[in-house]
Amino acid sequence: MSKALTAALLLAAAAATPALAHHSFAMFDMSKQVSISGTVKDFQYTNPHSWVIVLATAPDGKQTEWGFESEGPSTLLRAGIKHSSISPGDKVTALAFPMRDGRPAGSLISVTKADGEVLTFRVSRPAPSPDAAK
Amino acid sequence: MHPWLRILVGLACAAVTAQPALAASAKPSAWRYDRTYAASWDEFQAMRKAAHGGTRLTWRTLPDWTGLWEHTGGFHFDPQQKGPKATAALTPAYQQMYDRKLADIAKGIQWDPLSACLPAGYPRWLLEPFLREFILRPEESWLLTEQNAEIRRIYTDNRGHVPADEAYPLWEGDSVGFWDGDTLVIHTNNLKAGQYQRDQPDFSDQATTVERMRKTGPDTIEDIVDVYDPVSLTRPWHVRQVYRRVKTPGLRINHWSCEENNNTVRTDNGSTAIVLPGEKGYRDPSNLGAASANAPGAN
Fold first, then answer.
1. Residue A26 Cα, gap to closest chain B Cα (Å)
2. Mean pLDDT to the nearest integer, B211-217
3. Is A106 on the interface with B (CB under 8 A)?
4. Residue B129 and residue A74: Cβ atoms within 8 Å?
5. Which element (helix H / strand E) includes B3?
6. Contact A28, A97 (CB under 8 A)
7. A72 interfacial to chain B (CB closer than 8 Å)
8. Is B136 domain-assigned?
């Protein structure tokens, strides 16, 4: 996939309305994005939300555990993201909307793997049906 | 066989085949939403009268609503809502509550009982995302959402509602209905008070509804809903929900446990926060089944 196409897809994904089920998104700053590179500690493929836990090491050697929240399994499956798509030990870069309070977590937009594969986690709600206005 | 017995058997068979069972493609009565009713039960009975008592469907004549479905149109109870406020005609007390709620949301203060793993409950059930199945039987239908494994049971065997002295508020209410051709007509009462959605108004436990649900195309099911609530509404709230077929190959509904990885908590100011791994109070999803996790050979 070209970089331009990847960037366009990510922009579209980031702009998509989140599936609001289960909890408010007020805790996330949807006007900002963070990009964190590190090693996957865990991929919790669970309801009500899946989580990708990433260990990131700063230049000074300090390690921080980041938690990135996403949708549950059935929604991710529809986006082509399987339980096997990410494994502990994978080197990844996670793009997310950060927490407003500054803690190391966010609402996950995408994960870029070491081989360049981009997994788009930001899944939009279905648009109104063509006849929804009837 | 004795000739008279043969005649009796023949008559019995004729009676069975002569039941008013319409084909799956049968059209419902020409129901029009052209007048108002004092109560949802009155509207429901008017629909039943228009349907000449209802259609007796059989396994052979039930419509085909098989497959997976999802709600379309967003999180407003009325998908036609254009501005920031719901289209409901609220009583002054509920309008005040709603205004306060929207003001809190604008300040970033928002809490949803769903975050504590409580069910969405009906009628909010109508709007929830994720997968759905509609299981039709002649005497009872099950309307399922994946989220929290919430099931509405619609009895179409001519039973009435639960007697008043046995009734108590239920997450999905008590639903009875009948078929009008290929349209499932539902009356629901005995609801728990709740909210239509996070940024929508509240309703009281006096809310009742009438629905007309039918397949409008190979991939579309509509549900036209009238909500009556003398406590929160000054007139019924008339909305139309649309569900679209999900075509992802091989997709299934699996059990959706809200508790398996829920670290959402309510803050002191009534808003929402998440407990992160390593923080006090974090519930590690890998340890929730601790007893079996410690068993020899467990993964």
1. 5
2. 98
3. no
4. no
5. helix B3-17
6. yes
7. yes
8. yes
Confidence check: pLDDT of B16 > 70: no
Q: In this complex, do B112 and A23 lie within 8 Å of one another by their Cβ atoms?
A: yes
| Total domains in the fold of chain A | 1
Q: Tell if the CB–CB gap between B261 and A51 is shorter than 8 Å.
A: yes
End-to-end CA, chain A: 39
* ipTM > 0.90 (yes/no): no
**Which residues span the domain enclosing A108?**
3-16+28-120
Q: Residue B86 belongs to what domain range?
A: 53-246
Residue in chain A nearest B70 by alpha carbon:
A126
Instruction: Find the CB nearest A46 among B75, B251, B261.
Output: B261
Does residue A123 contact residue A72 with C-beta atoms inside 8 Å? no
Phi-psi region of A57 (alpha: psi -120 to 50; beta: other; left: phi over 0): beta
Structure tokens at B81: 């809502």
Structural domain includes residue A12: yes
What tens digit of pLDDT does each residue of B146-179 get? Answer: 999 999 999 999 999 999 999 999 999 999 999 9
Residue A97 belongs to domain with CATH number: 2.40.50.140
What is the count of structural domains for chain B? 1
Asked if residue A130 is part of any domain, the answer here is no
Residue of B nearest to A23 (CA): B115
| CA dist., res. B48 & res. B62, Å (int) | 18
The answer, yes or no, to whether residue A113 has pLDDT greater than 80, is yes
Residue B115 inside a domain? The answer is yes
Which two structure tokens, joined as six digits, stand for B185? 């007509």
The closest CB to that of B112, out of A24, A103, A127, belongs to: A24
Mean pLDDT check: name the lowest of A22-26, A68-72, A102-106, B156-160: A22-26
Q: CATH number for the domain including B232?
A: 2.40.128.20
Contact A104 B75 (CB under 8 A): no
Residue B253 within a domain? no
Among chain B residues, CA nearest to A45: B261
